[in-house]
Amino acid sequence: MAQTIKILVSSMAALAIVDALSGASMAQEDQSNVEIDQVQLNDVWSNMRVEIPDYAWEATSTSTAVGNAAAGLITNGSIDLDVQQQLDGNVAATNELIGGSAGLAVATTTAYGNSTTGGTWSGSNYYRADQVANGDVSADTRIDMDNAGTVASATTAIANVSVPTDEYGTNGAFQIQESNGSVQATTDVDMCCDGHSASFVTSAGGNAMSSTGSTSTNINGAVQTTQAGETVAASSDVYMGFGHNVLAATTAFGNSASQNNEWGYATLGREGSEVFQGNDADVDAQSYVTIEEFSGYATSTAYGVGNTASTSNLGSDTGLYAIQNNYGTVYSDANLSGSSSSDGAGIVTSTAIGNAATATLCNICGDASLYGQTTQYNAGSVIARGSATVGQSGSVFGAATAVGNSATYQSNGD
Question: What is the pLDDT of residue 393?
Fold first, then answer.
């Protein structure tokens, strides 16, 4: 006998989780039917501040804000998950890690407007998510410390997130994602030194769909749109007196649909039912790194893309069918300034793309095929800028790449 769960939530933050972990209970039920309706009217805000007066072996600061969150996950059997989410308020997560020194310092800041995940470990996953984000979404991280042995941060802001998954079965998923607000992710770092490594990753996106499958049939569809007059922006500003193996990576995208599968037929979109991505928002990715003295490497990267669709598979037939329209301006800017008397390497990359589509098949058995069709239209300006000002170093590498439309289908085998 199937079970049906209906949830309606309208509050400061909406959260619904359906989790059937008991194999015994699922033995009596071939399929779970789950319906989740969520409406978030007001703002959602999280703030975390961790201060180190002197020294700590380990310092961790985490701030997470989500307007609507839904999950339907089972470990055995099949699930039919239908989720509808609407965000009308703003979502913001702020995070501060400040003070003295730490052996390990980690700051994680995450802001999602709507988030849905669903799947099964052994069975069929019938998945649908309708997500509308009308508010703004922002994530901000600030690190102001003396020094750290290892320091890392991850700052992520996305209006709509959908994650269908399946192992040892079949995944059939379709998502409609509509982002009507602005999205912003920022990382601000001011510190003396690091001893081993420093890594700062900043990401902002309008709509993101990501599906994984293993020993399964994986079929995904999506309609993703962003609103004209809005902005999707990610920025990193890093200053260090001395840095060893420093990385600042910044990514901004309007719409992203990705699928990763192995040992089973997989397709992202189908002929006549292509994945549709329409980006009208302006996309801006900026990375600025200043290090007075660095060793090892110092890297500043900025990547901006209006629409991106990608699928990869191992050992089985694979398809990618996509329609991509970009009308927004896509801008990327990466900068590095510093010096290295120890022959360090300075690396700067700046990439801006209007539409990008990639299909990859690792054809181990030699008899799998790659199928697909991609239609791309770009009406927005695409601008990539980069600069490196290095007083002394062992080597300097710089690359700025701007592409209107890019589509790649590749199959590699024995």
Answer: 73
Residues of the chain below pLDDT 70: 1-29, 365-366, 414
State how far the alpha carbon of 222 is from the alpha carbons of 129, 158, 323, in Å. Answer: 9, 16, 11
CA separation for the pair 327, 379 (Å, rounded): 5
- Can you list the pairs that 8-13 forms with residues at least 24 positions away whose Cβ atoms lie under 8 Å? 8/37, 8/38, 8/39, 9/37, 9/38, 9/39, 9/40, 9/68, 10/38, 10/39, 10/40, 10/41, 11/40, 11/42, 12/42, 12/44, 13/40, 13/44, 13/65, 13/66, 13/67, 13/68, 13/69
Domain containing 245 equals 3-413
Cβ atoms of 292 and 338 within 8 Å: the answer is yes
Cα 76 to Cα 95: distance, rounded to the nearest angstrom: 38
Domains contained in the chain, number: 1
What's the CA gap between 233 and 183, in Å, rounded? 6
| Residues 137, 158 contacting (CB under 8 angstroms) | yes
- pTM, full prediction: 0.93
